[in-house]
Amino acid sequence: MANLVASSSSLFPTDLPSGNGLVGIARLAADGQTIDSGYQVEFRSLKVRSILNRTSSRRGLTFGRSINPYRGCEFACRYCYARYTHEFMDLRRPEDFERLIFLKQDAAWLLRQELRQLRADEEIAMGTATDPYQPVERRALITRSLLEVIAQCRRLRIGIVTKSTLIERDIDLLQAIAAHNRLVVHLTITTTNARLARLLEPRAPRPDLRFETLRKLRRAGLQAGVLCSPLLPGITDKPSALDRVAAAAKAADASFFCAQPLFLKSCSKETYLGFVREHFPELESMYRKRFDADAFVSRAYARRMREMVRTVTRKHGLCERSTDALLTRELGGLDETPDAQPGQGSLFETVLPRKPGKREVPRRQRLSA
Ligand code: SF4
Q1: Could you tell me the pTM of the whole model?
Q2: CA distances in angstroms from 271 to 83, 86, 155, 251, listed in the order given
Q3: Could you say which of 3.40.50.700, 3.40.440.10, 3.80.30.30, 3.90.1010.20 is the CATH number of the domain covering 24-316?
Q4: Which of 11, 180, 186, 353 could form a disulfide with 42 if both were Cys (CB 3.0 to 4.6 A apart)?
């Protein structure tokens, strides 16, 4: 972790809870050292006991393992549902998630130990709670160090989710991993409109740059597709908007295309509604009506979105990912333990070529990033 050296000063000296009385991850977070800062962002070290987290539902079903090299995410997407992971550290202001980034220490060493517990064919999803290629990765190299460990493995199933062009840096490693494991990369691209993307995902790379990254991953022989999630009511959920993303995905040779509706957990609701109020004030009452009583869209809306996604995937000859849900009530919700995130199961059920006209067979609902 060259250049990231611990210091005692903090950009937010009064914001962090003191370690007194805290336990577990909150205690470890409070003990973290400031190691760097950027524009209104502070990076802190985080000692963790484990890097490979088991993700399970409240009903005890295991969906796989997840790795999140960082806690917090500088990309600051207005709809981000992972803000609650900072709440586990007793950091409850929504903006802490994007301004106080924790770097997990000794991640590669931990992974090497923990991989010994895994069976062949186990699933590992990287980046389900925070982006593994957020800006600090350029210097911290934690994600790369983890991929170097994974590249020694055989017969694992690896899913990576990112919005970042920085993943191009690791194409060599991704190829090495894909040679002996199943690897699927998901580029999250919610809109082709660069101005809208700047508002929605303030510090993530422009959509056209993400499509270019996708193209490079595909040219490198990697399986990579577009996750056009979340679909935002009244903003990105129009057929024309989805069609543009699907067309660009096709042009970039995406291996698959999928999209899921927005859900608004309490941790993300006010941040997202603040964005709506500022930029789409006419939509606020609609959002309140839809999400005040429930974090999830109605079944009817979800069905309409599914149909719309099917229509554009067919139209552009894209493969559809074999998952149906982002996080639905049918699934009963996930354990809200650190790093327990929607997505792990679904990252590998990928790429089913659609046969036009074939009758839909209901599939087991899965969680999705
Ligand atoms: S890139 Fe993902 S984890 Fe990061 S802020 Fe955006 S939605 Fe959240």
Answers
A1: 0.81
A2: 10, 14, 40, 33
A3: 3.80.30.30
A4: 11
